[in-house]
Amino acid sequence: MKVDIQSLDARNQYKVMSSLVVPRPIALVSTMSPAGAHNAAPFSLFNMFGEDPPVVIIGLQDHWEDRKVKDTTINVVETGEFVVNLVDEDLAQAMNVCATDFPEGTNETEIAGLTLAPSEKIKPHRIVEAPASLECRRIAVLQIAPQRKLAIGEVVMVHVRDGLMDPETLRIDIQAYKPVGRLFASLYTRTRDQFEMKMDSYQEWLEKNGTS
User: Fold this and answer.
1) CATH code where residue 38 lies
2) Where do the Flavin reductase like domain residues begin and end (predicted)?
């Protein structure tokens, strides 16, 4: 089957892409308006894209119905700061509440029963219940379509729940972390089923394949 994706409208383009590129990590993004109002919204068009400097990218989209710009987008553009709060199984339901299309200016964290705490290096607060939070400063916001922007941020501080990360090796205990991934529509996935594949060096590959 071939899909001429450029011939589809925006909703169907999204349906095709979001159902194939899975699972995706979820960024529960907390921001603060210039006036000091708090906001939180989840985004699954999100991932890390570098380590020196550490960079994350979030796909920001206007509301489908009225094309109004979301509070998160406004705050990122106007303040240049945001926090990526990562989502685990315990945070999933509250994250889903934050996805509700509340009126402009609503503090979703209060409705979802979440706790905000001051960040170390930026003004927007982090969500205490998150297993990890990434304080970010805007590198750039790219307008790639009338209703779509890409926010590129540099991670300037990381908060990790006690017990998740080995302080010496900096490795995460994935069994304790229990992150949640987005599939499509209202489907999500847990990450409890894992398997390991070690990558061989070229010399190891030659030795295994009898060509050394």
Assistant:
1) 2.30.110.10
2) 19-166
